[in-house]
Each structure stands twice: as C-alpha cells, then as structure tokens.
C-alpha cells in the first residue's frame, strides 16, 4: 500500500453535536425560560446549516420575498356585492398610507418573514408613548436571540445564547401578551395604567403546522433531520475533492525494468523503514505531478520486470487510457437532495429553475407554465404566514383607532403568457 496525502472521507454520527446533557429550562431575572433545542442552540445551529446549504438558503429567501410580494395596500371595506365579494376602495387616511410606505413597516415585514421561514418563529414587540395611549413603534426582535418563559408570560432577549446564558448587563425581559386574546390583555393593561412606555411583546408567531408548545419547527427541519440537507452540501465537497485529486491520464507507458530495486538498492539503506519512507516520498512526488486540473491528460510511465530466460521481447508498451470522473451519480444524488429540501418547504423545484435532468424526479423541464403555476402555488400556500405577520399590524391600527372597516391586502406581480399580456400587479389575499 502506498501512503497518500489526498484522501477525502466523511463520517456521519447519529449522536447529538452537544455532549452535555440538554437542559430544558434556564433561570434569569427570577423567571424560568424554556431552552430552544439541545444546548439551547437550535437557532444558531439552523443558521450554520442554512449558511452552508445553497438551495436551502435560496428557498427560504424565495418564500420570504414571495410572501411580502409588492407590499401591503390598506383598503376600506364598503360592503359586499351580490356574489359575496368584498367591495374595496383605497384607504384615504394619510397617516395610514404613510405608515404602509414607511421604512419601519418594510423592516418589520421583511424580518418577520425571514424569521418565520428560517426558524419557524418570530417575535414582534410594541413600543408605547409615555402615557400608554398609543403604540408608536412595531419592531421585530431577532428570533435567534429570543426565548419564552415556561408560563408564556415573558420573553427573554439576549444577543449570545450560543455561548452563554443571559447576564444582567445584556439580558432583557419583556412582558408577553396572552396568546389566546392578546388585544383584550392589552386593553386591560391600558385600563390599569400599566402601559407606561415599556415594550410589550406580541405572542410569538410560529409555524402554525407545528404542535410544539413553545417553539415552532420550520418546514425545512424535516429535510435536515432526515439527512437530505447534509447530502446537499456534502456532494459539492466530494466533487471538489474528486476533481482536485483526480488523475486524468492520457497515456500509459510501461518500461521493462525492476525500477525500485535499481533506484533504491536495499544494501544502501540501514533498515527497511528508511527505504520504505524514501520510496513513499518518491511516490508522493509522482502523485503530486499527476493530480489536479493542471496535470490533466499527462502521460504515466511505469516499469515491469522480465525474467532473463523469458522469450518475451523487451518492448515498450504504450496504451491509451480511458479516464473519466463519473460524477453523474453524484450529481443525480445532489439534485435529488435539492428537490427533497424544496419539497419539504412546499416549493416546486421548477420555480427556482431546478428541473431534474435525470433520476427519480426526471421529466420536469421547468417550462414557463411550470414556473407560473409553481409561483402561484407558492403565493397560495403562504396565506397563513402572511396573515400571521399582519396580526400585530392590525393590532397597532386597532389600538390606535384606525381599524374601522380597514382591510389589508397584499400586492403581487402575476406572471402571464405572451398571448394574454404582460406581467401585471394584482391585489391578492
């Protein structure tokens, strides 16, 4: 056996990354909070996985962008027609119009969709004026830095749960509204004079499909737990190593000579180990000269021995080699992994141009019709999340007295075919 520095191998363990016993709760400010995942590090692990898996990062970004669409339009409800459809006209309240065009609103919406699709949870916060009569700001705290109390009445915000537990100088505890009727809870606090400028947290918005009591699970978690995410980002590593270390040789020339015995005679070395090390060093030099893209189609020259009494003519043997890195199977596996990740998020691969060239998911050419239909399905399947992130917005409008007949509609760009006209913007959901 020869020694080599170019081995690439991956081992996968079924055990948890964290070696310490997972803690279910932690205490801060005389309150008990629930840990989020093993070691209280689920969001940080999720960020690491998303950052190293291109298709997953792209899919999350796509769902967030598709959900927000072209923004939100405030409308006044004037009644219903004979078919039961709403009769809507644009809201004329300038303060409301200004809010939905503001940086503050766009920031809240984009961060809310980011967190709910990334982590399965998002945490809106209300800020009030000094006498508590009006909500002056709606912001979103990064879900990565938030934890919920065991009684669901408090939210702990801390910037570095990945490394430590909250400290008095950095940790913050915010009162959380009742998740069954947050507006009633807020009105009671206003009547009791408890809204004195301090922030109040809206009940955490979570993936509605999750049954977890405290933290929702994002849709892509199933693909992560089943191993498809690992496959998706290990295949590129394998292929990169394969191409960098492959010997793509063109010709094989065999020379009749007892090469190693002549080049490294046994009597010139004090022991077998030193001679073996010298041979391995020479073989490594040969390998380095043949491996890699810059050494493609090189000639390899070897030697073979012939007994003195043999009648075989002493000739050089020149053979053309068939060298090819067979990456088709790996690429097919990678494409299947990408598809499984997208399926877990209810995304048709066509919408991202991920039509399969072969394998179990072949036949998806990614035509214009596929893309248009996939896009519309994506818009439809995010209805619940779109309404969830608007709930705190409606609470702001209602608390501040702007909710009389107000309906919030998302504006979407709908793709059409050439024979039906150009892409158009429509008011939806």
What does this structure look like?
The structure is a single chain. With 429 residues, this protein is of the alpha+beta class. Among the domains are: 26-53 and 69-219 and 382-413, no CATH class; 247-320, no CATH class. The protein has twelve helices and 16 strands. The strands form four sheets. Strands 5, 6, 7, 8, 9, 10 and 11 form a seven-stranded mixed beta sheet that branches. The protein has a four-stranded antiparallel beta sheet with strand order 4-3-15-16. A three-stranded mixed beta sheet has the order 13-12-14, with no helix packed on it. A hairpin with a 5-residue loop joins strand 7 and strand 8 (154-157). Helix 2 crosses helix 4 (103-118), helix 4 (103-118) packs across helix 12 (383-399) and helix 7 (228-245) runs antiparallel to helix 10. The radius of gyration is 32 Å and the shape is elongated.
Task: Put the structure in a nutshell.
The chain is an alpha+beta fold and 429 residues long. It is 36% helix and 20% strand.
Please state the average pLDDT score: 79
**Poorly predicted runs:** 12-22, 356-361
Radius of gyration, in Å, reads 32 Å
Report the total helices: 12
The H-and-E topology, N to C, reads as EEHHEEHHEEEEEHEEHHEHHEEHHHEE
Structural class of the secondary structure composition?
A: alpha+beta
Q: What is the helix fraction of residues, given as a range?
A: 25-40%
Overall shape: it is: elongated
C-alpha end-to-end distance: 67 Å
Largest sheet: 7 strands, mixed
Question: Which range does the strand content fall in?
Answer: 15-25%
Q: What's the β-strand tally?
A: 16
């Amino acid at each position: 056996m020869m020694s080599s520095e170019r081995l690439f191998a991956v081992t996968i363990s079924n055990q948890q990354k964290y070696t310490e016993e997972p803690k279910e709760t932690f205490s801060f400010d005389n309150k008990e909070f629930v840990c989020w995942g093993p070691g209280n590090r689920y969001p940080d692990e999720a960020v690491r996985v998303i950052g190293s898996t291109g298709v997953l990062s792209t899919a999350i970004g796509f769902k967030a962008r598709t959900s927000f669409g072209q923004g939100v339009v405030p409308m006044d409800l004037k009644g219903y027609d004979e078919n039961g459809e709403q009769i809507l006209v644009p809201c004329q309240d300038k303060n409301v119009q200004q809010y939905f065009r503001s940086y503050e609103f766009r920031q809240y919406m984009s961060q809310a969709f980011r967190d709910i699709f990334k982590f399965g949870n998002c945490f809106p916060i209300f800020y009030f004026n000094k006498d508590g009569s009006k909500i002056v700001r709606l912001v979103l705290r990064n879900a990565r830095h938030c934890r919920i109390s065991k009684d669901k009445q408090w939210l702990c915000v801390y910037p570095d749960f990945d490394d430590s537990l909250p400290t008095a100088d950095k940790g913050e505890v915010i009162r959380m509204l009742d998740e069954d009727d947050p507006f009633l809870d807020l009105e009671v606090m206003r009547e009791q004079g408890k809204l004195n400028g301090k922030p109040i947290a809206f009940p955490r918005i979570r993936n509605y499909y999750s049954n977890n009591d405290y933290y929702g699970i994002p849709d892509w978690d199933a693909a992560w737990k089943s191993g498809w995410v690992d496959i998706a980002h290990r295949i590129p590593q394998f292929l990169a190593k394969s191409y960098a270390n492959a010997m793509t040789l063109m010709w094989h020339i065999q020379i009749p000579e007892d090469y190693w015995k002549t080049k490294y005679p046994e009597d010139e070395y004090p022991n077998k180990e030193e001679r073996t090390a010298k041979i391995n060093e020479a073989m490594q030099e040969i390998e380095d000269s043949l491996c890699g893209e810059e050494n493609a189609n090189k000639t390899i020259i070897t030697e073979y021995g012939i007994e003195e009494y043999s009648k075989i003519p002493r000739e050089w043997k020149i053979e053309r080699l068939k060298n090819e890195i067979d990456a088709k199977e790996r690429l097919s596996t990678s494409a299947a992994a990408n598809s499984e990740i997208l399926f877990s998020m209810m995304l048709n691969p066509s919408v991202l141009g991920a039509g399969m060239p072969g394998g179990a998911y072949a036949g998806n050419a990614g035509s214009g019709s596929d893309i248009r239909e996939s896009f519309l399905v994506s818009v439809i399947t995010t209805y619940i999340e779109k309404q969830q992130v608007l709930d705190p917005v409606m609470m702001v409008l209602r608390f501040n007295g702007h909710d009389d007949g107000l309906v919030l509609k998302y504006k979407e760009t709908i793709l059409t075919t050439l024979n039906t006209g150009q892409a158009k913007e429509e008011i939806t959901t």
